[in-house]
Amino acid sequence: MIDLRSDTVTRPTQPMLTAMMNAEIGDDVFNEDPTIQALEHYAANLFGMEAALFCPSGTMTNQIAIRLHTRPGGEVICDRYAHIYNYEGGGIAVNALCSVSLQQGERGLFTAADVAASIRRDDVHHPVTSLVAVENTMNRGGGACYDFSELTAIREVCNQHEIPFHLDGARLFNALIAKNEQPKDYGRLFDTISICLSKGLGAPVGSLLLGKQEHIKAARRIRKVMGGGMRQAGFLAAAGLYGLQHNIERLADDHRRARLMADALSDMPCIDAIIPPETNIVIASLKKPFTPDQAINVFKAFDILAVPFGSQEIRFVTHLDFDDNQLETFIQKLPDISQAIEQG
Ligand SMILES: *Cc1c(COP(=O)(O)O)cnc(C)c1O
């Protein structure tokens, strides 16, 4: 099987497993796991931020950040495509008792002008604008990357209104590699950043929330409330640390393969359009009457896994366990797959 459903499907490599097996561990709820502490320090330093918190998932790091920055009755400014809005089980409402102001960004990327226009006046009728949250790369937008200048402009609007600024950076390293940007520039811009270790970096589990000391202290308490306090999880942190130290630069290979994949897919008559991939996500929309479920099933019959991604779209994601040989196999199979889809 060539599994392109997500970059979360990767298995730890032998050197990563070795790092995990050799991890020094302790009870992290007692603050006694040296490997988790090493990971948190390493990531905080990488971004020039004060502190970090290791969590089981990116959903948890995002949800903790939202809880942290808001009060019940607040409103979160985010895009209609945002992971925090679409793919976290309604967590903004459940965990933070907040509503959302949904932006209609281009490929999920909204602007400083959009934010400025969405901030609420001080009026008892309105929710209180409490947080601006962006996603980079933007999953639903085909792995699109923000221009750093736009993020800086959004930060200025946040500053004018004293509103905190959170980044869902589940795939931030893909953006940094694609745009040749530095983690510290992001560390300076945001109050909190969530990064995933279990996607492009190839770790089996884990995400980090980065921020100021006081924020991370409060985040640790919220993590406990959510049931995310883990014990000898240094085995998992070792994998994340290994990923941060070894698997960032290689994301460029995933991006190259995604572009080649998009080129090949665009030759299929059943495909209407492909969002030109900036990073490792390829979203292709099908001509009607072809449906995502039908196309996915045909791909599966040819040992290729993808996911339906909207009413007319299918998504492929490149990753650490997808190499040039598999790309070649993928491309070679496309004419037959194409024919099978056309024949219904
Ligand atoms: C994967 C992802 C997350 C976190 O997902 P988990 O599966 O909970 O780790 C958050 N935001 C985006 C954009 C993602 O793609």
TrEMBL record:
> What name has this protein been given in UniProt?
GntG family PLP-dependent aldolase
Self-association and partners: Homotetramer.
Give the record's keywords alphabetically: Pyridoxal phosphate
InterPro entries registered for this protein in UniProt:
ArAA_b-elim_lyase/Thr_aldolase, Low_specificity_L-TA-like, PyrdxlP-dep_Trfase, PyrdxlP-dep_Trfase_major, PyrdxlP-dep_Trfase_small
Q: Does the keyword Electron transport apply?
A: no
Cofactor(s) annotated in UniProt: pyridoxal 5'-phosphate
| Pfam families named in the record | Beta_elim_lyase (PF01212)
**The Aromatic amino acid beta-eliminating lyase/threonine aldolase domain covers which part of the protein?**
3-286
Q: Which family does it belong to?
A: Belongs to the threonine aldolase family.
Carries keyword Signal?
no
The domain of life is Bacteria
Tell me what organism the protein belongs to. Kistimonas scapharcae
